[in-house]
Design brief:
Elements lengths: L4 E2 L19 H6 E8 L5 H12 L4 E3 L8 E9 L5 H5 L3 E9 L5 H8 L4 E5 L12 E14 L2 E8 L5 H12 L3 E11 L2 E2 L6 H12 L4 H6 E3 L8 E5 L1 H8 L4 E2 L3 E4 L8 E5 L5 E7 L3 H6 L3 E8 L11
């Protein structure tokens, strides 16, 4: 359960305006949701997003980071208006399980010892076929573990910063050993806070939506999450209903509009702004700490991106 510092103990959500995310209709959920697809080998990530868009009959869908066509696994896809939040998934860490083939046999203790050289800060030159400029970039590798070694084939797990190329990690590892190596197979097991346990096939999504249209919403509600879930790792500032209208028009959030706030926010941190019903108003930058929001006046948060429609909450005195 989320712990908050409560600034206004009398704050209560309106019965007239807004809707809790879990109470949205199937159409509303479809138009502002996220589904974790288990990407098959073959299609591109863009093609998977296009299929989600087609299956749900929506205007747009966006994925959370490209997987090569042959790579399988976790591919969160935002639907409808939630595509505006994809950037927050792109910046989050990823985890992979794969098979690396070493070109010459090397003693296991040497392989495991060499792997430790690739944990921490590393420097990579992106491959020629990449979406970014080919210049040296520093990335963090949080774990590079060998699960099993069979002669020249190594089953590994890699927990890495966003933007780390696993294929390049394998080739650099082989170069470090002086024998060469390449990535043979790869599966993404986590992207941001989404794991393969949550992932579903494209066919499962299509079937769940068909059932929902016939009145059985259980499967669809289980696999398509409200768009708010995309940014749930950001600290939250909950605002009074009377502050929502001005915020949806881009106004800054001043302290009197704060109902409660998560502890641990520092000046400059990105934060999510929520209504008392947990609807996402938008994303902003904190202009003071959590503690200061409880006791001083001034601007609490500068709005960077408005998500909630201005029509949901009227102007209130």
């Amino acid at each position: 359960m989320t712990t908050y510092l409560v600034r206004d103990e009398n704050a209560k959500p309106s019965d007239k305006y807004g809707l809790r995310p879990e109470e949205r209709t199937i159409a509303q959920l479809r138009d502002f949701g996220v589904v974790v697809i288990d990407k098959p080998s073959g299609p591109t990530s863009h093609q998977v997003s296009a299929y989600v868009q087609q299956a749900l009959g929506i205007d747009k869908a966006g994925h959370s980071g490209t997987l090569d066509p042959k790579v399988t696994g976790v591919l969160p896809v935002a639907t409808g208006g939630a595509t505006r939040l994809v950037e927050y998934m792109l910046k989050a860490g990823k985890e992979y399980v794969g098979v690396m083939h070493v070109h010459q046999e090397v003693p296991q203790y040497e392989l495991r010892k060499a792997a430790q050289e690739f944990v921490g800060k590393i420097t990579q030159l992106p491959p020629k076929r990449s979406a970014v400029a080919r210049r040296l970039r520093e990335r963090s590798v949080y774990a590079f573990e060998f699960i099993e070694i069979r002669t020249r084939d190594i089953l590994f797990r890699a927990d890495v910063q966003a933007g780390t190329y696993i294929r390049k990690l394998c080739s650099d590892f082989g170069a470090h050993l002086g024998v060469g190596a390449h990535m043979a197979e790869l599966r993404r097991t986590r992207a941001s806070h989404y794991t393969e346990d949550q992932s579903v096939t494209l066919q499962t999504l299509s079937d769940a939506y068909a059932l929902a249209q016939e009145g059985d919403e259980t499967a669809f509600r289980r696999i398509v999450l409200p768009g708010e879930d995309i940014v749930k790792n950001l600290k939250a500032v909950v605002v009074l209903d009377s502050a929502v209208h001005s915020l949806t028009h881009g106004a800054t959030l001043k302290v009197p509009g704060v109902a409660k706030v998560m502890p641990g926010i520092s000046d400059g941190d990105p934060v999510r702004i929520l209504t008392l019903k947990d609807e996402l108003v938008g994303i902003g930058t904190a202009r003071m700490s959590s503690k200061d929001m409880m006791k001083v006046k001034g601007v609490a948060v500068k709005m960077d991106k408005v998500i909630l429609s201005p029509d949901v909450y009227p102007r209130m005195e």
